[in-house]
Structures are given as structure tokens and as C-alpha cells.
């Protein structure tokens, strides 16, 4: 089986210096990644993630969701190919089975591509597949995720749940208004990846294309809270959702416009608070 790279669903237009990529990965790890903790907790609780779980996490980022699954006793494989810097941060957080130290965990594996070992006597199939990176903001993200799932699901057992995540309705996601700044700027640069509104059936469409059977869904409130505007800018830039706008104009201009868009969510104490709702779909492997 040819190794399959996991491509990140968020756009990264233009060339970014290696040092900036490292800083942005750190901003993601320290500021932005925690915003989806309520989602991770809700999914893990609903599916009873624990010692009997073998988890395959697609687009595992800097590993916070993996840490939470490991704390429940799950065996896990995290796949992150879009950002070597995020993968390096995950390796700092989690003891790896390829390490030979006394404290290495044999049931944790981090890699930059899908495993090539098919389920068999020595390699039990995965019992859960997650794709926690939300879709529904970038043109083409549903097609990419469907293709990735089609390659990943043969590694899991029949009937195993596959969790997909998307942005909720625009009227329930305050961040949507801020991201319109990126969409407005990106319109100046024809032919780049475009931001789009989330669609009601995005997740079901992906499941159908990947040959999966929908089997339940839920919504989780995941507010984006920041210590100040500067922290909010770093966090939002770390997602990659503003990259197209930066490529179409320049980063100082995008930061200026984004800071202005954050004003309605600025509290008297200087913190920034944006209510958001994310939707998850549980689909089953036939």
C-alpha cells in the first residue's frame, strides 16, 4: 500500500519562512488548539473512549486531542503531514513508541502519513477514526476530507465510528463575521482558495462520498476566548484561515482589519470572547 499523506484542510497560500511556521505552530498549540476542547470531550464521552479504544486521528495537529484520549487509556495513532512544526510539538507532548526510553508508551504512535500496515494478526484494526479539523470554511475542503477518509477507513474495523467536524451555522458562530475580513481581501486575488459559508449537509456529503453511513450527530459550544486582541490575532492567524487574505494583501493590513472586526467581541477588561458552535457527525464504516 502506498503511503498516503494527510493534507491539512485549511489553506496556506504563499511561501512562509520556516521560522514563521514554527512560531505559528506554537501559537496554535498555546492559544488556539484549546478552543475545541469541549468538542473533544463531548465526542470522547459519547463514544466511551477508554482502554479498549484504538484511535486513528487524522490531522492530529500538535496533539492536544491525543493527550486527552491517552489520558482515558486509549491506544492511538496521530497523523499530521501538513505541519512538521505541529507534529514536532505533539512529539514533545506525547511519549512515542519509537523512543526507547524507560517511559516510552508502546500504544502511542505519531507519524506524518497514514500507516501502511493493514489490519491483521499483529496489527488490530482501529476502533475509532477522528477528523477533528473543522470543515466548512474553505472551498474544496470537503473533497479533500472525503478522499482522505476513503484511504483511512480500510485500516479500521467494520462498524467503527468515524467522527467528522464542521463549523456550525454562521449566525451561531461569531468568528464568521471576523473571517469575512479574510474573504473580502481574498476576493482581490482571483484564483486563490476561497472562504465559503458552512453548509447544512457538509458532513453528510463527505460521509456519503467516503462510503460511510451517518449514525448520529451533535452540536457543541466552543467559544473562542483570548486574553487580549494581540492573542486573538495570533490565534486566528495560526489557523491558516487568514492566509489567503495575507497573500492577497499583506499581513499588517490583515491584522489591522481583523483587529477592527474583533471590536464587537472585546470586553471591558480587554479580553476577547466569541461564541461559536461546532457540529460533529458520527458515521459508521459499512
TrEMBL record:
Database matches in InterPro entries: SAM-dependent_MTases_sf
Keyword set includes Methyltransferase: yes
Any one Gene Ontology BP term: methylation
Single GO MF descriptor: methyltransferase activity
Domain of life: Bacteria
Transmembrane feature ranges: none
Keyword Transferase: yes
Keywords: Methyltransferase, Transferase
Region of interest (Disordered), ranges: 1-21
Name this polypeptide is given: SAM-dependent methyltransferase
Native organism: Streptomyces achromogenes
